[in-house]
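Example 9 (inverse folding). The structure is encoded as follows.
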């Protein structure tokens, strides 16, 4: 494959990342685009009062860590921290600000605290084992779970057990749903499903419904951009020219998919560390469910890191072949398609 791209390139297939439990926990923070998310920076849509209501409810929940204070002298009765639920669940459509509010809550909470997707937490438990994961998270003031998955009974039961154990030790919980883009007209709200699946935890959660329009609607209605070799060379050269330290990975799509199968998903964040752009040559549709779900987990990390993707071959929004888009993991694939489209709009 001839190319005039400068030689400051790497291949993801040459990387074999490793992560300790402490390193896994260290990356459980809000995605880059929510580094500065706060309650003040959340902009409720005036046409949907539930967004303003949600803002105030989450802000109030954030005061649950307030230290006790005394109303008078040393021997006077201490004031208790505000009473309320030990968990909060933000239930709404795609693109109404749930993750922003979850990140704002995380920033407002004292440490130790963790923020990750449902997939990230289950990957950590899978990599470390349940007992080690409980030990790792015990003592946390807040566990924030973005995009709580409801389509895998085994993972849901395991996550419920983990949260039950942590909640019993005093950890507060916050979660959002994994509803798909509402431009496709399905499943905007998942509160009933969520409360049913978490069973013993349901009475500890305050469910907050958030209505509104999907501001990322255009992503799912568009298409992933496809380039030829010359177009990729030009685009990547432009990335490299922006900063002398820029790092670009370039891999054959099939080879990368095979390589992802050798790495635990909890380590995908380390796989793309330091990468400023990703090039995928010869994209082809995926036919195996295992490869497809692994690619979804990889794209979640790429999207969170806001890394642009330059691709040739089949459009990335058509990568999930056959009946995948109508099967049990439809929601995951819809989310991935939206993120793949957004990641190619450079």
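The amino acid assigned to each position is listed next.
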């Amino acid at each position: 494959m001839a190319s005039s791209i400068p030689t400051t390139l790497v291949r993801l297939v040459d990387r074999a990342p490793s992560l300790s439990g402490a390193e896994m926990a260290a990356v459980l923070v809000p995605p880059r685009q929510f580094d500065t998310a706060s309650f003040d920076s959340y902009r409720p849509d005036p046409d949907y009062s539930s967004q303003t209501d949600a803002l105030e409810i989450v802000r109030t929940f954030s005061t649950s860590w307030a230290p006790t204070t005394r109303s008078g002298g040393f021997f006077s009765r201490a004031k208790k921290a505000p009473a309320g639920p030990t968990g909060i669940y933000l239930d709404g459509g795609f693109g109404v600000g749930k993750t922003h509010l979850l990140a704002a809550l995380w920033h407002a909470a004292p440490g130790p605290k963790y923020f990750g997707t449902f997939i990230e937490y289950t990957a950590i438990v899978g990599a470390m084992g349940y007992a080690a994961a409980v030990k790792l998270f015990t003592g946390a003031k807040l566990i924030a779970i973005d995009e709580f998955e409801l389509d895998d009974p085994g993972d849901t039961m395991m996550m419920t057990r983990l949260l039950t154990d942590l909640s019993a030790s005093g950890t507060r919980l916050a979660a959002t749903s994994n509803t798909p883009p509402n431009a496709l007209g399905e499943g905007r709200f998942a509160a009933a499903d969520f409360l049913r699946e978490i069973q013993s935890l349901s009475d500890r959660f305050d469910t907050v419904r958030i209505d509104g329009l999907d501001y990322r609607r255009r992503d799912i209605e568009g298409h992933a951009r496809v380039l030829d070799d010359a177009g990729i060379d030009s685009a990547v050269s432009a990335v490299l020219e922006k900063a002398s330290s820029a790092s670009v990975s370039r891999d054959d799509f099939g080879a990368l998919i095979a390589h992802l199968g050798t790495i635990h998903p909890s380590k995908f964040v380390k796989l793309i560390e330091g990468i400023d752009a990703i090039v995928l040559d010869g994209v082809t549709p995926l036919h195996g469910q295992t490869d497809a779900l692994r690619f979804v987990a990889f794209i979640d990390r790429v999207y969170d890191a806001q890394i642009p993707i330059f691709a040739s071959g089949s459009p990335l929004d058509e990568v999930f072949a056959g009946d995948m888009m109508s099967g049990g993991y439809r929601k995951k694939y819809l989310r991935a398609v939206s993120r793949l489209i957004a990641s190619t709009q450079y």
